[in-house]
Protein 1
Amino acid sequence: MAIRVVTELREMQKIADDLRASGKRIGVVPTMGFLHEGHLSLMRIARKHSDFVITTLFVNPTQFGPKEDFARYPRDFERDRRLAEEAGSDVLFMPTTEDIYPAGYATFVNVEGITDLLEGKSRPGHFRGVATVVAKLFNITKPHVAVFGQKDAQQAAVIRQMTRDLNFDIQIIVAPIVREADGLAMSSRNSYLSSQQRKEAVVLFESLRLAEKRIAEGVVESSAMREEMARHMTKFSAGEIDYISIADHETLSELDQMSKGKTVLISMAVRFGTTRLIDNIVVKV
Amino acid sequence: MAIRVVTELREMQKIADDLRASGKRIGVVPTMGFLHEGHLSLMRIARKHSDFVITTLFVNPTQFGPKEDFARYPRDFERDRRLAEEAGSDVLFMPTTEDIYPAGYATFVNVEGITDLLEGKSRPGHFRGVATVVAKLFNITKPHVAVFGQKDAQQAAVIRQMTRDLNFDIQIIVAPIVREADGLAMSSRNSYLSSQQRKEAVVLFESLRLAEKRIAEGVVESSAMREEMARHMTKFSAGEIDYISIADHETLSELDQMSKGKTVLISMAVRFGTTRLIDNIVVKV
């Protein structure tokens, strides 16, 4: 069936109400559009866990910093519509900024603690924007299940915490990272890269693989490993490292030692010119 | 039918889901218990607008300041249960503090702007606690309609704003203040008053009536009227005035002049010993 494009908030809520009244399970996949295989994998997972899949497409201004790429964030509606339809979405919900943040808008959702670290530290206010818009999208699409990507590992943790804390009756699924053939994590922002940068960008994944190997070999000191990862990236690319983090995968607090049995989130942000890429891997020590 | 007492969050969500699945309309009345005629009027209004009324009873620690009356806030469960039942509530939802704020709790809802004024100014953090717990109770009880009292005029404004901003698909009804025979607004905190304080406490309503009379007579200067109200209260009681506000009834911003056609919220907070009372009136100039 052809995908239905919905822009009105009330109409979206009415569709959700009608689906729920007829006993249907709703799955939602929040995106900022410019869809790639990563997003499509989320839709396919949502499909498996629900009867009706709503993909939301909203480039959310409140999660961009004043010097970030909100204005130039890539957009391609016709392509997105086709891809979302092919991946099994029933509705593409595409609200306007004016409807999401009308004049006099004043309410924000803050998840404290974990939002001060990593991406939150580098991008102040980012997760306040994310948590707020996701809470809103939950209330507009009324899903039973929502699917997010592990690519944004900290975002997934923030949304899990918010969902639990605010008692949203929604199952959160976090889906594995989808990568290009050479290992680069798929991202809408990859489209910003020059061909040289694109080639070099594989150093993120390479350094994560290197870390995984070192852990298997018994390396326990985080600082030594972080330095080795940084050396690799600096040697084989012009990328400027924003952070490399070796943290507890739940609390996201930094670990000096990777002790046996721990599940560790190794994550990083690296700038190639004005393009900022992130990647991560979860390793059981 | 006997009222059902529910303490488990998941059980409450399940009841709400089943009601919705069978096409029933849910009304919710959030309270901190120690019910009086004011609360009961809210339940009767909820009854009129829904098929099933959930009264919540939770003394919410996050909306009390460190020096406020959380520990001594009055409690009388057996009486509350009987009164809620008589007023037509179907469920009394009474969660534990540990279930509402489990270990590691970290998420707060902030309504900016109007929460900095009046009660928010006198009670920093109060409305953050209110907005957060109401968002949670909305997600747990899944109502179609929620009823709040005009007694807490600013709270009603904050909840309206939050409901609109976060796209909660819930109708908010604000019900008129219920007063004692002498005009004192009903409040669970009235039980703190000594018999002398109780007699004097009528000055709040008297000064509001005085203001209403002066507006009818054509007084337009807010400062003159505020002074007259303060004089009345100081002359006939030992109450210490926290604030007297003459504000736009929607934005809550203070008005120097009460111009014709304006709808004005006149509100106040007054301390009698350690007991803090509030009252208000809305006047169309």
Note: Chain A has two domains: 4-175, 188-280.
Protein 2
Amino acid sequence: MAVYTEVSDEDVAAFVAEYDIGRVLALKGIAEGVENTNYLLVTEAGQFILTLYEKRVQAEDLPFFLSLMEHLSQGGLACPLPLHGRDGRALRELRGRPAAVVTFLRGLSPRKPHVGHCAGVGQVLAQLHRAGDGFTLSRTNDLSVAGWRDLLDKTADRADSVRPGLAEALSAEVEHLAREWPDTLSSGVIHADLFPDNVLFEGDRVSGVIDFYFACTDAFAYDLAICLNAWCFEADRQFNVTKARQLLRGYRQVRPLPAAEIAALPLLARGAALRFLLTRLYDWLYTPPDAFVRRKDPLEYWDKLRFHRAVASSGEYGLDP
Amino acid sequence: MAVYTEVSDEDVAAFVAEYDIGRVLALKGIAEGVENTNYLLVTEAGQFILTLYEKRVQAEDLPFFLSLMEHLSQGGLACPLPLHGRDGRALRELRGRPAAVVTFLRGLSPRKPHVGHCAGVGQVLAQLHRAGDGFTLSRTNDLSVAGWRDLLDKTADRADSVRPGLAEALSAEVEHLAREWPDTLSSGVIHADLFPDNVLFEGDRVSGVIDFYFACTDAFAYDLAICLNAWCFEADRQFNVTKARQLLRGYRQVRPLPAAEIAALPLLARGAALRFLLTRLYDWLYTPPDAFVRRKDPLEYWDKLRFHRAVASSGEYGLDP
């Protein structure tokens, strides 16, 4: 939630001159996106988002992200479409950082997600999975099992300061999941971070999906498991089975869920909870107190993880027979 | 530089329904304005700024600020125009905070102000002073002499931690300025914070003036003295007389400068430097390190103050004869 890199009007005028979108009329820093610097860019051709990629995004991943948005957009998904400059390039440099201009999407991300949003989220997630078909680039999910081990190592010595016994519990959890983690599920491009921040709505209708900077190649059902964590718990950390039912029903309207994916859901949801628990824990322990980032409570995901661990079968997620 | 108050889509839809601007199409938090929460609001009628006033702005001052913008806008100044709801009110409430919707202005605030900007700044400042004519409300400048004494008291015991001897030097400075401060200069509505952040440009042409939340009733020449501090020093804190010449020339093209105002400029500029020195010092000492605000170095204004103290006559500001 910050503008990390300030750009001068001369910088941005020269940058925009590389595109066919007319003169710059306005530029406003946007207080969204903890990873990158985003500006609302108004030109004679309309509204766009100008993104400067900060160091947390690996520069070598950017061609994957930008090509993916283009592929998905051409496949009919409502997502930002990167603009190509007159030289054909979508990725260039601004103030020493990789930078791109993408189309601006209408809609509001829900601050208070409710059950009416969930069917649309399920549908658009399945559309994304289908639209990713034929995309030739791939990117390893570096926040899957190997990444968890790495985060575990980096947080082990201080995890107990957050909750006594947490380090050992997490270690056991990673080992269990590493043993059980499925590797034969149907895979392809997944969003991997489809939280309410990243879905735009007009009323209860999804108008767009944004922020593809965790997208990678992994099991489709894992993406669904992330959404169960992101959309189907209340602020008091109670699971809302009505939301989950709507989410799963919406998904299956667009892409059928094979039996193997259904059976794997509790384990995948447990892994997804662990993934956000570990990254939040890392950020909690390593974010300097003067950083311009609001730290999120890692223990929210400890509670979610425990919920999934107690789920005996996918029917508990409200899955229609 | 933050969004202090999050609003839900339901909140904003209900709020916007009070105006005649169609449905909400998008809402983005803007990373500008350290005082208030600002959103870019896109509706079927176009782009607007939605502002939620946070606690640093006194609620009882809001009618002054909003009426002033309306008066100045009707007087031909390019500034935000507050919208009236169907009930006639410009000021209402959102999430428990006073809130208003104003028009969106095109243009970019210069990150690196250069000499080409300065004539336009002088002109628009004089236009603002003229457009304020006939405005019937008034507001005391609470950051003038009495306010300085108050800030001095609050910072005295810790000022020397910023620079040895600073507390005593500031005390002597306030006493000197209090004795010499003129009270017979031509007065009216002043902006009182016309820094580069608050002026929008299209190229070198001013397209708008924003952020009227320090506006008050005071000497016009004091506003000019603030601009000398805000626009005419380089990053290395050297005074740039070419910039000042352009600024003053631009101002005098629109509003003549009486001899008394010219003569008072060095003292007023010294007072203006002291005002920003004291508020920055206060923020420096009292901003918690985990606040989402970047503190600004108060000593920048110590150097500026010393420059103005050494000015023997207004000719040194590049004033044309």
Note: The radius of gyration of chain B is 20 Å.
